[in-house]
Design a protein that fits this description.
about 600 residues, alpha/beta, 6-stranded mixed β-sheet, flat
Amino acid sequence: FLAFRDAPEHVAVHTQPHEPIVKATGGQKQQSEVGKEANTRHPFSCSESDVKQLWLQLKKDEPHLLSNFEDFLTRIFSQLQEAHEEKNELEYALKRKIAAYDEEIQHLYEEMEQQIKSEKEQFLLKDTERFQARSQELEQKLLCKEQELEQLTQKQKRLEGQCTALHHDKHETKAENTKLKLTNQELARELERTSWELQDAQQQLESLQQEACKLHQEKEMEVYRVTESLQREKAGLLKQLDFLRERNKHLRDERDICFQKNKAAKVNTAASRASWKKRSGSVIGKYVDGRGILRSQSEEEEEVFGIPRRSSLGLSGYPLTEEEPGAGEPGPGGPYPRPLRRIISIEEDPLPQLLDGGFEQPLSECPEEEEVSDQGVQGQIQEAPPLKLTPTSPRGQPVGKEALCKEESSPSAPDRLFKIVFVGNSAVGKTSFLRRFCEDRFSPGMAATVGIDYRVKTVNVDDSQVALQLWDTAGQERYRCITQQFFRKADGVIVMYDLTDKQSFLSVRRWLSSVEEAVGDRVPVLLLGNKLDNEKEREVPRGLGEQLAKDNNLIFYECSAYSGHNTKESLLHLARFLKEQEDTVREDTIQVGHPAKKKSCCG
């Protein structure tokens, strides 16, 4: 009892958790669970004396709790007994499990020993089999080697027999070899004599080929000169004929007008003579005034009767305005008739004959003119001096004529002649390119080419004089048939497009198709992109031109006729290509080569 008094806190610690459990539980099952929980939380470690003292203390102090305490102790002892029994069962189960594990391990150990034993037996068996197979293989190899040795022995014996036979034949071979040497020397001398004869024949053949080539070139140049002269004469005659027809038509129109104005002219004769006397300083002044009176009278008639003036059309098709009166009337720029200043031929150039010698027959000597007006006007016209007609053209002298004069004035004739045709849309700069290449100058405001124009330029290509006959064609659709006819005898074609005009580049494929239809792929084609100087307005990138040239196997350049960039380089590239192509064709001709000497077997 002194222990409980001295340590009340200890008793409170052990008794405090049990009091609410006993009060809160009403049945035995719940008390047992609470007792187990209390036992797990606070293990019962008191001895029998301590329990007895606690029981006596409860009996003395609080006897009403004695029954509960006894029940609690009963449950505790029953639980301890159950735990002890469970422990015994677990120990027994553990022993049985250990025994089962021992048996299983013993079984596994026995199986492992059996497997090791079987593996050893299999390994020994395989090793024995391998050894036997290796022994058999070595025996077979040994047999093969013995057979080979026997065969080699037989071959050696046979070769010894052959060597003996060859030794016997050696003397006979030496005798034959001596005879063959003599024969070989005779054949060598004959071969040398034949080779000299063949060299002489080959030199003669080469000289004949060179002479034939020179004759062929001279013939080509002669034919070219004769053809060009005939073409120029024909063109000049045709131009003169067209001019005379136009002039005749104009004079007939004037004759009809003068017949209608005859009455009006007689009425105004006195006034006109008075004006002539005032202007009698020069004969040409009378002629000019007379023509002016006729024009003023025709204008008055048109104003009175309301007759519309018929527009005179020259060969170019341009209507004549008031500043450009009909032929024979002096314009404001001088006494020469304006329609004669623009005579368009197939090259759209002035007549070479008119430029050189002029039109010798005066306008007043035409038979139609003498019958047109009355005697007074006729006398004034006949007194007029002959007019020297020198028509001018915005394009100047004919390009073909100027280049031809340069060619004729050159001291030496060209070695080669190539005909190159320029094609492309209108206004891409073909004519300006030709002028830059031939004359090294640029002329702005060039008129469009009508039909065909040409130039001839001699260049030096690899120490060889090459004449380039450059044909400028019209780019309009109406001249397409004329352009295609020039492809057939062309040595090269230049297709030009404008870098600032995308449509001209799109038309390149159409021009290439025309070239292919006419000549196939035997003619080299140079693709030129012009107007490189106008880089700001470029519409066709350089890559497109290079890709098109690569796809169609063309030579490609971008140039500028304005600055002269790549004008000479591109044409020299094409001329060099044409020269190499012609050299290749010439080399493909049949030539007799030197025969190779056969080496004699006897030296």
